[in-house]
UniProtKB/TrEMBL annotation:
Residues 1-81 form the THAP-type domain. Keywords: DNA-binding, Metal-binding, Zinc, Zinc-finger. InterPro entries: THAP_domain_protein, THAP_Znf, THAP_Znf_sf. This is THAP-type domain-containing protein. Coiled coil: none annotated. GO terms for molecular function: DNA binding; zinc ion binding. The lineage of its organism: Eukaryota, Metazoa, Ecdysozoa, Arthropoda, Hexapoda.
Length: 94
């Protein structure tokens, strides 16, 4: 199964969408979990990813050394809600 974003189901795309694991830092991790309506104790977050669509440009830093590769800052918190549109119809888009 290909990895996709927990919230919007986007897959990694060259150049614009990147997938990010839940951070190790417990405070930041909890903030991510709250954002996703998950529980850090009840839910297994290790297999989940959030895509870059939920973060602002300020949440990233760019490494000049490695061909301008983008990194998510270790204390970045998701702030943009985007959901997938499903044909079933119960999901809300944006
Ligand atoms: Zn996403």
């Amino acid at each position: 199964m290909a990895l996709s974003c927990y919230l919007c189901k986007r897959k990694r795309q060259k150049g614009n969408i990147t997938l990010h694991q839940f951070p190790k830092n417990i405070c930041v991790r909890k903030a991510w979990a709250t954002f996703c309506k998950l529980n850090t104790e009840r839910d297994n977050l290790n297999n989940l990813r959030l895509c870059s669509s939920h973060f602002t440009n300020n949440d990233f830093k760019t490494s000049e050394a490695e061909g301008k590769k983008r990194y998510l800052k270790h204390d970045a918190m998701p702030s943009i809600y985007i959901f997938s549109k499903r044909r079933g119809g119960e999901e809300v888009l944006f």
